[in-house]
Write a structure and sequence with these properties.
The chain is an all-alpha fold. It has one domain: MFS general substrate transporter like domains (Growth Hormone, Chain: A, Up-down Bundle), CATH 1.20.1250. Helix content is 76%, strand content 0%. The chain contains seven helices and no strands. It is elongated. The relative contact order is 0.20. It comes from Listeria fleischmannii FSL S10-1203. Its main location: membrane. InterPro entries: MFS, MFS_dom, MFS_trans_sf. It holds the Pfam family MFS_1.
Length: 235
């Protein structure tokens, strides 16, 4: 009886699949971590309830749902390279903008930037996965899909852990560096918020750098005009 692996690593023999998977890894590292950082800011600094912070993210989710079918049409016309590159540039810029959040940042600003960021995300996710699977022979497509989705979840887990660690370490380091002149006349809550904001800003900056790396790697994607390769009849 032939053994069938749950994850077939032979898919990484295809350079296009490997490249798009690596790009997706960096994208989702920043994406999932960033999706956690914003609710932390809203709930701990701005005093939002979990429900209210979820409603702030809702417009972005709606934009992603609306743009997903549109992105499919654009993918057929322009391919993965340029579509993903535009989306990643949008994600990078908006993530950098989140690295300057403070107590005075307006809710309107946060919603607009998050919605634009979600639109960029919609332009990245589907094209990268489709390009990865299109590069594989048809009989390897199922293995490719399983591997791609697994790596995406791994990237999200690593990204979340890494960015939360960066946030915590940065906040702790910043707190130790505060002098008496920095805290005079401020309440404990104000000081705690100031420290937390510094950590969140640093974590968003790291997430933006992850997106920059993905942007650079996207330049090396080669178009596969033939789509899925046909199964070769060996009989």
């Amino acid at each position: 009886m032939r053994k069938t692996p749950l994850l077939n690593f032979k898919v990484f023999k295809n350079p296009t699949f490997t490249l798009t998977t690596i790009i997706s890894f960096f994208v989702f590292m920043g994406l999932f971590g960033g999706m956690l950082l914003l609710p932390i800011f809203l709930q701990n600094v701005r005093g939002f309830s979990p429900l209210d912070s979820g409603l702030v993210l809702l417009p972005g989710a709606l934009v992603t749902a609306i743009l997903s079918p549109v992105t499919g049409v654009m993918f057929d016309r322009f391919g993965a390279k340029y579509l993903s590159l535009i989306g990643l540039i949008i994600m990078t810029v908006t993530t950098f903008m989140f690295s300057s959040l403070d107590e005075n940042t307006t809710l309107t600003y946060i919603i607009i930037i998050q919605t634009i960021r979600a639109g960029g995300m919609a332009m990245v996710m589907m094209p990268l996965q489709t390009a990865a699977l299109n590069a594989l022979p048809l009989e390897m497509a199922a293995h490719g899909s399983a591997m791609f989705n697994t790596m995406r979840q791994v990237a999200g887990s690593i990204g979340t852990a890494a960015l939360i660690t960066v946030m915590s370490k940065s906040a702790a380091s910043f707190a130790k560096s505060l002098g008496a002149s920095d805290v005079v006349g401020k309440s404990k809550e104000q000081i705690a918020n100031h420290v937390l904001i510094h950590g969140i800003e640093t974590a968003f900056l790291i997430a933006a750098i992850s997106s920059v790396i993905a942007c650079i790697l996207t330049l090396f994607i080669r178009k596969n005009p033939s789509g899925l390769n046909p199964v070769v009849d060996k009989d």
